[in-house]
Amino acid sequence: MKNYFYVFFISMVPLVELRGAIPAAYFIKANDPTFNLLTAYILIAIGNMLPMPIIYFFARKVLEWGKDKPVIGGFFTFCLEKGEKGGKKLQEKAGRGLFVALMLFVGIPLPGTGGWTGTLAASILDMDFKSTILAVVCGIALAGCIIGLLCTLGLGAYIGVAV
Question: Chain centroid to CA 7: how far?
Fold first, then answer.
């Protein structure tokens, strides 16, 4: 049971999110045959999506409040700039197709393009809440499929070579 909590909490960590939790789940599965990957995937997706409403409604306000504070100011400024940069890039490329652009932004597993950054960018762009959450959920599902496929192929290749 603790392994399920482990991957659940990894998926909630900013910048790591699902992209780190799925490989961790595959690693656990390789060492524990009773570990169920489907259950892990569901928990990872829920864990990755859980912070989204909080980020949408509060992150921008907290980051703006803390950007000029000592100790935390540098990190808060970095997060705010990352969200603004992601949002502007998204808006330039998307035009009217902002929903699809946000979904792809979250769904293509590259560093700094996860659910946290996507939700913050959507909040900065003033996208409506329902569209933001739906696009981020679809993006998380897409990223989960891509990372899962890469882990399956990579782990299968490793096992084939190691055996």
Answer: 13
